[in-house]
Design brief:
It comes from Natronococcus jeotgali DSM 18795. The chain is of the alpha+beta class. About 30% of the residues lie in helices and about 20% in strands.
Length: about 110
């Protein structure tokens, strides 16, 4: 049986998928997960879940958020002129830099 393992690095942090283990039962899966995934990096806790218990909800089933265009929130969406407040110009430059960085990360 395959068990998926999620690791939390610090208390209060998110659990992130770190791999899986093959084990015949829950107790062995917990022990294998602790050995394979809990001792190499700082670990606060592990979640060990049977693979068949993990469900997926796809975009074809549900409309997830983030599909609405909210460009009005960014200063780059507005036309600025030399007479505008310096804060607006600085914000526009920061947003343009952030967008370039996001593009580089992909």
């Amino acid at each position: 049986m395959i068990w998926e393992v999620f690791r939390q690095e610090k208390a209060g942090g998110y659990h992130a998928h770190c791999g899986n283990v093959h084990a015949p039962d829950r107790e062995m899966a917990r022990q294998f997960a602790a050995i394979q995934h809990g001792r190499r990096k700082p670990t606060n806790s592990l979640w060990v879940v049977p693979r068949e218990e993990i469900g997926e909800i796809g975009a074809d089933e549900v409309a997830f958020g983030g599909t609405t265009d909210k460009i009005y929130r960014w200063a780059t969406a507005y036309n600025t002129t030399a007479g505008d407040a310096s804060e607006v110009v600085e914000s526009e430059d920061e947003q343009a830099t952030a967008e370039r960085r996001r593009g580089d990360d992909r």
